[in-house]
Design brief:
Length: 347
């Protein structure tokens, strides 16, 4: 009789080989992907592993192949709020990794590259997916210097053939302004990210979104008004108070950040401005769960997080497996989802 606390006997590759009727070497080929095995043989081995409760020893596998089959998503969580949009990137990336027999871990490391240097030097992962990319991102030089495979969800100024996917900010802003123009709005304001904050002056989404808006507003002949705002609900409320005070003729507001968009709409309501009867609010980049938190529910340009998380992971794994680079398109626009916060301007 097994004593209390005594675990189940360890199942070995020899046990699996015996159950499947193959050699130990053939089991090793399947576990480490070192040689091709016929589908029928692979199926017998995997069935034997399931029946016996065999668990792969990931450390031994890594030592044998010099690969961990673990990839990291580097997300600077201290500087960037982790909202529903960020969660969509992460969960879709994790699923894409799992579908290709990789594991994904989250590294909440800073943007300066210091922590990243220490982590990649330990050989813990096969490669890295970078999120929240700056136009001149020091993490890129760190990964290039260490020879670590990586892919970007975002873009630096000079891509130099770097594997990347990103939001198509030009098309997203074009479509957002075009939608509001079609409703009849001619007095618009963009509540953008805060480029005066040293942490974000070089942040790709802020710079590209604002540049696209300035171009599109000029093409439509709109007065170009941009308010800078931190990604926080309170900051959004302050921005709402500023636009009501300084730009009372405004009929529609585009808001870049998720949390500030919630603040803008609540701030307008508190100030007695009905949304959308008096003023429309359109979130430029948002996930549906965030939009549903607003009253009325926000109209939004739906962030392509599920697509980009999977594509960024695929771009990295293609490098690791020696496969062809990710085919285009590498830029995915956000798509318009109409909620209850937009309508034609008041008569």
């Amino acid at each position: 009789m097994r004593k209390r606390g005594e675990g189940r006997p360890m199942v070995t590759m020899r046990d699996v080989a015996k159950r499947a009727g193959v050699s130990i070497a053939t089991v090793s080929f399947v576990l480490n992907d070192t040689k091709p095995v016929t589908p029928a043989t692979r199926e017998r081995i995997e069935l034997a592993m399931a029946e016996l409760g065999f668990r792969r020893n990931m450390v031994a596998r890594a030592l044998a192949s010099r690969r961990t089959h673990i990839i990291a998503m580097a997300y600077p969580a201290l500087d960037h709020r982790f909202g529903f949009s960020a969660a969509e990137f992460l969960t879709s990336a994790a699923e894409a990794a799992r579908n290709q027999d990789y594991h994904l871990v989250l590294w909440p490391v800073g943007n300066d590259g210091t922590e990243l240097t220490e982590l990649v030097g330990q050989g813990l992962v096969d490669g890295v997916v970078l999120m929240e990319v700056q136009l001149d991102d020091p993490r890129v030089a760190v990964l290039q210097g260490t020879g670590t495979p990586f892919a970007l969800i975002g873009r630096t100024t000079t891509l130099e053939s770097l594997a990347h996917v990103d939001i198509d900010f030009e098309t997203t802003v074009d479509n957002a302004v075009g939608y509001l123009h079609g409703l009849g709005h001619r007095r618009l304001i963009l509540v953008s990210g805060d480029l005066t904050d040293p942490r974000f002056h070089n942040y790709g989404p802020y710079v590209r979104s604002e540049a696209a808006y300035r171009r599109v507003a000029a093409e439509y002949g709109f007065e170009t008004i941009v308010l800078q705002c931190a990604d926080a609900t309170r900051a959004g409320q302050d921005a709402a108070a500023q636009l009501v005070r300084d730009h009372p003729e405004t009929t529609a507001v585009l808001v870049l950040n998720e949390y500030s968009a919630l603040g803008v709409i609540s701030g307008l309501n508190r100030l007695g401005h009905s949304v959308p009867a008096d003023i429309s609010v359109l979130a430029l980049l948002m996930a549906p769960d965030t939009a549903a938190m607003s009253d009325p529910e926000l109209s939004m340009m739906r962030t392509p997080g599920p697509e980009l998380g999977a594509l960024g992971t695929d771009a990295l794994i293609r490098q690791l497996e020696g496969a062809a680079p990710l085919p285009p398109p590498h830029l995915i626009p956000a798509k318009l989802h109409i909620g209850g916060s937009t309508a034609p301007p008041p008569g």
